């Protein structure tokens, strides 16, 4: 087998895996971090992918909610829909989706589709960091450098209140509570 053929086979397999992933019936080939395939959709299937993703998001699928929010946020300016982005990112954020929280925090920091609010942005970014977003921790640190001391003091107090309520909820659970009875992720 020639070198060219050995190189072409893996490349063609990658492309065919993406094509199979577009077929809803073959869920084993879906990328683990993307549910809706909005970024892989061709022009013809974009409307179908958007419709399917909207259905999943409306049913409470936090990954689909995140992807819809991200989709509407990342569109070119003439197609961008910031109210839609805000709506879907808020829903995913309330379910503890760290990257949705991060994008939502950035929206508040930059005043993108909402009134800019450093305190709210900082709190949301810190929640995203707690829920697993390393980038959100860096973003929160950069924001803190720009915040006034009074803003940072308010944000720190709000975070303290959130964590106290969370710990109170944890302590109120019975010692032998099943895993499903654990408190919800931090908002």
TrEMBL record:
<feature type="signal peptide">
    <location>
        <begin position="1"/>
        <end position="21"/>
    </location>
</feature>
<dbReference type="InterPro" id="IPR011990">
    <property type="entry name" value="TPR-like_helical_dom_sf"/>
</dbReference>
<dbReference type="Pfam" id="PF08238">
    <property type="entry name" value="Sel1"/>
</dbReference>
<dbReference type="InterPro" id="IPR050767">
    <property type="entry name" value="Sel1_AlgK"/>
</dbReference>
<protein>
    <recommendedName>
        <fullName>Sel1 repeat family protein</fullName>
    </recommendedName>
</protein>
<dbReference type="InterPro" id="IPR006597">
    <property type="entry name" value="Sel1-like"/>
</dbReference>
<keyword id="KW-0732">Signal</keyword>
